[in-house]
Every structure is written in C-alpha cells, then in structure tokens.
Amino acid sequence: MKKLLLLPLVALLFTPFAAHAQSSSDATISNTLGVGPRLGYYQADDADEGSFYGGAQIRARLGRIVGLEGAIDYRTSQEYDLGSYSADVRQIPVTASALLYLPVSEHFQPYGVAGLGAYYDMVDFSEEAESIPGVEDDHSVDFGYHLGFGLELPFNRNTALNVDYRYIFLDPGSDTFGDVEDADFSGNVLSAGLMFYF
C-alpha cells in the first residue's frame, strides 16, 4: 500500500507545470504527435505484491476527441507463490491503445482507453522448483488486452501530464508456470506520464 502512495507524489513533481497552465491562454491539444516518459505501478491479481515500472509512450492526437498511443515499459519482478515453490516474473510490455477524449476544458480532459499488448515475460523459479520435472526458467511472449480511463492535464499546446488506470486481461501461456493452474498476470496498472507535443 505504501508503494501506491508514491505515484501521487510523482504527480506532485509536475506542479510547477500546472502553475504555468493557469496562465496559458490556449492549451487545446489536437492534430499533433507527442512523446514522453512514464512511470507506473502494476499489481497482478495472483502476485504476492506489485512492482514499479518505467517506460516511454508516444501519442497521436487525431483532433480533439480521438487519440492513439503506443508504449513500451520495463516492469520489475513480481513474486508468485505457486505452492511448493515460487516464481519471479519480469515483463517488457509493448502496447497499442485507442484513446477517446472528453474535452471538458482546455486544462482538464478525461479519456477512456482500450488496447492490445504483447508481453515479453521472464520467469525465474525458486530453488525448490529445480527438482520438479518440466519446471524451469523460461522466457515467453503472451498477448492480452486492457481497458481503463484517465485524465490529461494540458499545461499549454506542447506539454501535458496524463494519469490513468487500466485493468490488464492477460492469461499467460499454459507452460509458463508448469502444471499450476489459475496463476495469471491479469491485474491493475496505475501510470503517470509527461507528454511533449510538437
């Protein structure tokens, strides 16, 4: 729970940008392309605890309502208790999303998000698993989808902060955890990004 409190603190780092937003006469962002870094927290339903991640995103604003997003991240390990042994899983997700904005005002734009992703999974089993036939460290690629909502806060025409929540639907391949069933990577994701549009 303490880790979840760090994400709002990251957003506070961008407070000076927000002050500038109040003085900007026009922060409407449309028909433009942007890139920027993002940070987040991912908690899979079956993991013992969540993990932080960092990455980069690119967004295309196709007018004021519709947008597209591509992102790549690196997620640090989460531990899964699989009974007599455990596994640490790291991920590199590559995702593509569609964004539907509700331009309430120049400085306050909520949006819905839906998309697909390819997840490169790096699974490292504990020492207890070494004697179990068919269970060994593995790398694999799984596919999933996500739904969520967020908020973009434009500071001016070229800079914006976005914060969002997504639920990932991601069931790993049948061989990822050996013969263990009902252990998957579906879960909650919170992220914050700083976009630079040009």
TrEMBL record:
Gene3D superfamilies: 2.40.160.20. The keyword Phosphoprotein does not apply. Residues 1-21 form the signal peptide. The keyword DNA damage does not apply. Residues 10-198 form the Outer membrane protein beta-barrel domain. Keywords: Signal. Pfam families: OMP_b-brl (PF13505). This is Opacity protein. It comes from Fodinibius sediminis.
